[in-house]
Amino acid sequence: MSRALSATAKAALTAFVGLVAAGTLGMPAHATGPHVPAKVAPVVDVSTSAELADALAEAAPGQTIKMAPGEYRGAFTTRKAGTAAGPITLTGPRSAVLVNDGPSGEAPTCPEPTAGWDSGYGLWLYSAPYWNLNGFTVKDSKKGVVLDNSHHVRLDGLYVHHVEEEGVHFRRSSADGVIRNSVVEHTGLVKPQYGEGVYLGSANSNWGCHGNSVGVDRSDRILVENNRIGPCVTEVPPRCGRW
After folding, report:
1. In this predicted structure, what is the pLDDT of residue 35?
2. pTM score of the predicted model
3. What is the reported pLDDT for 3?
4. What is the pLDDT of residues 196-240, one digit of tens each?
């Protein structure tokens, strides 16, 4: 009996020493080694509004979100940042169309993505620098594409049309951006005085919301080239056909 116990004890001691050497003693059963982060898919294909919303919410540097042709209805917002070495790309053909039926809910004092409030923007990047937006359409929304505190964002080949206010807005110090090869038309359908085709910065009367740490909207160094802006890009007085 004592010899059997001795053998059992010896086996237990050997197992204990093995656990200590492996560094797994006292760790949960699933944590048997160093943490390995989940691998980020380089390309995410989406074909529904829900898939697009999820992809925007979970985007990672270097990733490309590819939209299939079709209409995407909803409040499409992201707060995910790319990097200089790994910008995030949202791309689709012109037949991939973003529509926002909003606004709805109670708006905050200053525009910021908030639970229970839909801004009505077709696409909203908020504190989301280093994105590429390529090829798709935004229409039938309060505003088209809005960039807030989102520097180094490039828009290429977009089609923005039939929106209630401005088509594309670089706002809240969204500096060093580019919009090229795009068409913006039929803006200001509800508020002609806010129907700019491409709006850079913001009026100083709005710097309380859109100013930086020293109270100024420094949406500087934006390159606007090779676009068609108009017809029916409105202002005060309305100038249908302005280019």
Report:
1. 60
2. 0.82
3. 47
4. 999 999 988 899 999 988 889 999 999 999 999 999 997 544 444
Contacts of 81 (CB under 8 A, 6+ apart): 61, 88, 127, 128, 129, 130
Regions in the chain scoring below 70 on pLDDT: 1-38, 235-243
